[in-house]
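Human: My hope is that you can spare some time for a protein that puzzles me. I am handing you a single protein, as its sequence and its fold in token form. Could you go through the record with me and say what the backbone is doing? Take your time, and here it is.
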Amino acid sequence: MFCLLVNEFGPVRLFLALPASFKQKLKNQQAKEGESVTLCSVLSKPGVNVQWKKGTEHLKAGDKYELKQKDASCELQIKHLNVEDSGEYSCECGDQKTTATINVHALPVTFKHKLESQEAEEGGSVTLHCEFSKPGVPVEWRKGTQVLKSGEKYQMKQKESVSELLISKVVPEDSGDYSCVCGDQKTTASLKIKAQPVTFKQKLGSQEAEEGDNVTLHCELSKPGVPVEWRKGTQVLKSGEKYQLKQKESVSELLISKLVPEDSGDYSCVCGDQKTTASLKIKGRRKTC
């Protein structure tokens, strides 16, 4: 474009630079999570500077964005798309602008690595873990239908796409089916806890006592709360006026009141196939004249 001026020397032709405009504008696009997408525009002339934006944010070249310009063609490539990349993108040149919308569709979450059934011994710790098709997704851990919460018994951890459930100090009651749930996706595995055999940490000790006194026999088991049976010889003893049976955590006691010589004999504490035995000898009181 030019205009013609006339001065004292004659006519002068002046050429005027036209502002750049967009010959080809950006187009709206649909893409899937994890893919790449390229926005293209073409200017009316080459070599002019442009600026790319997402909303009001100025975009810079890097791992996420690649900016290219060849002659009058301008390109923005967006890599490793996620749902948050959806929005309006614009290419600006001076007061000229072209805008397009990108809509990124989320891929459904699936399990790359499912839970596996395990066996463990009582008293140890167990870790169940699974891996998802993408990182940072919210999950819920369950035992049967019970939703589990982090605390002393359970610890839930999530690092990138791997989710873990740590179960501490397992007991036979921890056996069952455990699930990791994410939306409508679920993976389930069974956990079987093998009970440790009960043993006597401290066995009964034989004692001597005088007629009319009280005596206490006690022993300690390797774990608390297990049922025991007290016997004198083959006779099973019951709590009452003569005998008192007590159990606190892993310690079991038999209190025998108002001893008489007939209380002498062998006493046993029995737990399953485990047994500890001790003898009790009652000395009669001397008669005084």
Summary: Residues 103 and 253 are 73 Å apart (CA to CA).
